Amino acid sequence: MSIPFTLRSGNISPMSSTASTRRSRGRPPATTAESHALILDAVYELLQERSVRDLTIEAVAKRAKVGKPTIYKWWPTKADLVMAMFQERLDRDAATPEPGVAPTTVQDALKLKVRGFVSKLNGLFGKVMAELIAEGQSDPAILEALYDRHLRQRRAATVAEVKRAQAAGELSADVDPELVVDAISAPLYYRLLMRREPLTETYADELVAQAFRC
């Protein structure tokens, strides 16, 4: 790194000691990107130890080593903060097939997609998803954000795949694609929330197969 300098009598000299001292005092502030990452990392770590309901901004600030005003500057509410972490750290697309194992039918592609979703539901993604749904019962804004930022686009993509299956003759043209998606996804959320039966890849395959029998 080059040393700041001033020109004096034609010579290059180091920056004044007063300015240098002023810059060296205290811990240098983290960049915006670093602070953003530290905060979301803190939320990610804390939600492995406690629920969304028990998470506090104070705990996040302490873990991330930032002030609460820094958090509130980007995320006005705890729900906004959790949703941001959910999107950036957990809300990833389902696994894609390995090279040479690409599905040959739309039904097989959907099975692969649902298996990937089931895998996510069995991890921290599923825990946070269930807690966000629970919190949303008393705060409709959370459910609205969850649908707008996570569910809407993915649901539309799945509906498009069902329509592709209809066009390929794999599924009756008389079936409502929206209902097909409901028939596959609703039982997954039921098992996630009720925790009475396991979420398995076999169950995922059976749901898709059942929907395609319509």
Total beta-strand segments? 2
Please report the number of helical segments.
10
Report the CATH C-level class of the largest domain: Mainly Alpha
**Main beta sheet strand tally, sense and closure:** 2 strands, antiparallel
Give the terminus-to-terminus CA distance.
68 Å
- The string of secondary-structure elements, in order, is EEHHHHHHHHHH
Please indicate the percent range of residues in DSSP E strands (runs of 2 or more): under 5%
Describe this structure in words.
The chain is mainly α and about 210 residues long. The protein has two domains: about 30-90, Homeodomain-like (Arc Repressor Mutant, subunit A, Orthogonal Bundle); about 105-210, Tetracycline Repressor, domain 2 (Orthogonal Bundle), CATH 1.10.357. It is about 65% helix and about 5% strand. It is built from ten helices and two strands, in the order ββαααααααααα. The protein has a two-stranded antiparallel ribbon with strand order 1-2. Strand 1 (about 5-10) and strand 2 form a beta hairpin. Helix 2 (about 30-45) crosses helix 5 (about 80-90). The longest helix is centred in the C-terminal third of the chain and has 28 residues, at about 140-165. The radius of gyration is 25 Å and the shape is elongated. The termini are far apart. Residues about 1-30 have low confidence and may be disordered.
Task: Give descriptors for this structure.
two-stranded antiparallel sheet; 2 strands; mainly alpha; Arc Repressor Mutant, subunit A; disordered N terminus; 214 residues; 2 domains; Tetracycline Repressor, domain 2
